Design the sequence.
C-alpha cells in the first residue's frame, strides 16, 4: 500500500464533510508534504478553487462546495448570511453569488462570480451550524435579507417566511428598527408595508407614483354604491370608472379575506367599473408597467 494512502483516506474524509473542498493546511495535517501537494496540483489530480483551497479532479463544483470553500478561506468568525443562509436551510434557492460575512478587521478579495464577501461582524450568539456550515439564526437571516437584497426580492422572501410562520413579524420589526447599518431605510420601509393594514404603505406608494406620472385626478378610498351597500375602492379614477385595488402582503391575506376581495371585484364589475389589481411587488419593482397598464385602460375607457 502506498505511504500516502492513510493520508489520502484521512484527507478525503475531511473533504467529504466539506462538500469536496479542503485546504492546503488540512492536506498537510493529514500527512501530505508540500512537494506531494504541488505534484498533485501540477498533474491535475487536485484543482484549486481559491488560493490554498482545493478539490480533487472530478469533484462536482456544486453550490455547497463553493460555500465551503468561501467559509474555510474566510476563516474563523465568517458565516453565510441572508439569502445564502436561507439556501442552506432549504428556504431559498441556491443562487449566486454566495454571500459570506467576514469580520470587519479581515480583508477578502475574491474575484469570481461565485462568492461575495461582506465585511460585517456577526455576534457568535447569532451563528449556528447547518450541514456543518456556519449560518446565521432565523431572525438575523431575515434582518440581513431586508438589508442586503433588492427591495422586491426581499419582500417576496420575507412574505413567504411570515406566511409559513418561520419568522415572527414583531421580533423582525423590532430588530430592524434598532438597526443603523447600511440598508436600514429600505428594511424599515419593508416593515412598515408589512405591518400597515388600514392605510397601506402600498397604497401610498401608488398615489405617489400616479402623481409623479401626471395621471388624471384619482380619489383614494372611494366609496362605490352597489346592490344597496357601499364598497371601498383603494384608488378610483371616478370619471372613467376605473378602480385600482392594491394587494398587500400575502401574510395578511387570510382565505376569507381573499374570497371577500374576489366578491368585491365582481360587484364592482357588475356596477360598470373596470378593476385593475396590483401587488406591492408591482409597485416597487416594475412601476413603469403599473403606469402603462393604467394609461392603457384609461385610454380604452375614454374611447368607449
Sequence:
Amino acid at each position: 500500500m502506498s505511504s500516502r494512502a492513510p493520508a489520502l483516506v484521512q484527507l478525503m474524509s475531511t473533504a467529504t464533510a466539506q462538500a469536496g473542498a479542503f485546504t492546503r493546511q488540512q492536506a498537510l495535517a493529514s500527512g501530505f508534504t508540500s512537494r506531494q501537494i504541488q505534484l498533485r496540483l501540477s498533474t491535475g489530480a487536485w484543482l484549486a478553487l481559491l488560493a490554498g483551497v482545493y478539490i480533487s479532479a472530478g469533484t462536482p463544483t456544486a453550490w455547497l462546495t463553493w460555500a465551503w470553500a468561501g467559509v474555510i478561506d474566510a476563516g474563523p468568525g465568517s458565516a453565510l448570511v441572508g439569502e445564502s443562509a436561507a439556501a442552506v436551510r432549504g428556504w431559498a434557492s441556491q443562487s449566486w453569488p454566495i454571500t459570506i460575512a467576514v469580520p470587519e478587521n479581515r480583508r477578502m478579495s475574491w474575484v469570481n462570480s461565485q462568492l461575495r464577501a461582506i465585511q460585517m461582524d456577526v455576534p457568535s450568539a447569532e451563528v449556528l451550524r447547518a450541514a456543518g456550515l456556519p449560518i446565521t439564526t432565523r431572525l438575523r437571516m431575515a434582518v440581513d435579507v431586508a438589508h442586503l437584497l433588492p427591495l422586491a426580492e426581499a419582500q417576496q422572501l420575507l412574505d413567504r417566511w411570515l406566511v409559513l410562520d418561520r419568522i415572527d413579524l414583531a421580533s423582525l420589526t423590532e430588530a430592524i428598527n434598532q438597526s443603523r447599518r447600511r440598508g436600514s431605510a429600505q428594511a424599515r420601509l419593508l416593515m412598515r408595508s408589512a405591518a400597515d393594514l388600514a392605510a397601506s404603505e402600498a397604497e401610498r406608494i401608488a398615489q405617489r407614483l400616479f402623481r409623479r406620472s401626471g395621471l388624471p385626478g384619482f380619489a383614494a378610498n372611494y366609496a362605490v354604491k352597489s346592490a344597496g351597500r357601499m364598497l371601498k375602492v383603494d384608488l378610483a379614477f371616478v370619471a372613467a370608472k376605473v378602480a385600482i385595488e392594491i394587494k398587500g402582503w400575502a401574510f395578511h391575506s387570510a382565505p376569507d379575506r381573499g374570497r371577500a376581495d374576489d366578491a368585491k371585484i365582481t360587484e364592482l364589475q357588475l356596477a360598470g367599473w373596470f378593476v385593475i389589481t396590483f401587488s406591492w411587488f408591482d409597485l416597487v419593482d416594475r412601476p413603469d408597467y403599473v403606469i402603462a397598464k393604467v394609461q392603457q385602460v384609461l385610454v380604452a375607457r375614454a374611447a368607449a
User: Anything to note?
Assistant: The longest strand covers residues 229-237. The mean pLDDT is 91. The longest helix spans residues 287-303. The chain has 13 helices and twelve strands.
